[in-house]
Amino acid sequence: MFSAVSDRVFTELDAVRIARLGDGAVPPTLLDDLDAGEVVPSTAIPADVVTMNSVVELLDHSSGQHRRYTVCYPGDADPGTGRISVLSPLGASLLGLAAGAEASWVAPSGERRTVTVVAVLFQPEASGDYVA
Questions:
Q1: d(Cα 18, Cα 70) in Å, to the nearest integer?
Q2: Which is nearest to 122 in space by CA: 82, 62, 76, 92?
Q3: CATH number of the CATH domain containing 88
Q4: Does some domain include residue 2?
Q5: Residue at 79 is within a domain
Q6: Would strands 102-106 and 112-122 be described as parallel, antiparallel, or unpaired?
Q7: Number of domains in the chain
Q8: What is the percentage of the chain residues whose pLDDT exceeds 90?
Q9: In what order do the strands lie in the sheet with 83-85?
Q10: DSSP symbols for 48-91
Q11: pTM of this prediction?
Q12: CA dihedral in degrees (110, 36, 61, 46; nearest 10)?
């Protein structure tokens, strides 16, 4: 459904909460994606779309490795355990993408990185949690 990088869909709650983090904190690319993407009620988000607190399996194009991450708010981030902030380059590039889509970002080292969202292993909304 939302397989291309430009085809993003966000829940209304995620969009509002991210906006409340403040323009200075939110990467401009994420703000642009929120403006350009489709915003839907939590009950209408497809189950294979990355939302806040989703657990995703990614395929790293440079290493060929599969990794699991949870996209979370900055205060809950712990990269060592796979909890990545939505404000990080990787987290911002994933939010709103569906399984099968590619995410691309520039790492702090300046290297362009690309991953494929292999699967959304857990999504709060798909489990009936519309306020996570």
A1: 16
A2: 82
A3: 3.10.50.30
A4: no
A5: yes
A6: antiparallel
A7: 1
A8: 83
A9: 83-85, 66-72, 55-60, 112-122, 102-106
A10: TB--TT-EEEEEETTT--EEEEEEE-GGG-BGGGTEEETTSHHH
A11: 0.91
A12: 150
Q: Which domain holds residue 26?
A: 9-125
Mean pLDDT value across residues 34-53:
96
Look at residue 58 and tell me if it is in a domain. Answer: yes
56 is written with which tokens?
Answer: 């995703």
CA pair distance 126, 35, nearest whole angstrom: 24
Q: Which residues contact 71 (CB under 8 A, 6 or more apart)?
A: 50, 51, 52, 53, 54, 56, 84, 86, 91, 94, 95
Is 4 a member of any domain? no
- Closest C-alpha among 123, 105, 107 to residue 115: 105
Q: Which residue has the higher pLDDT, 104 or 23?
A: 104
Q: Which residue has the tokens 């209304």?
A: 12
SS (H, E, C) 11-34: EHHHHHHHHHCCCCCCCHHHHHHH
Task: Return the half-sphere exposure (C-beta side, CA atoms, 13 A cut-off) of residue 127.
Answer: 12
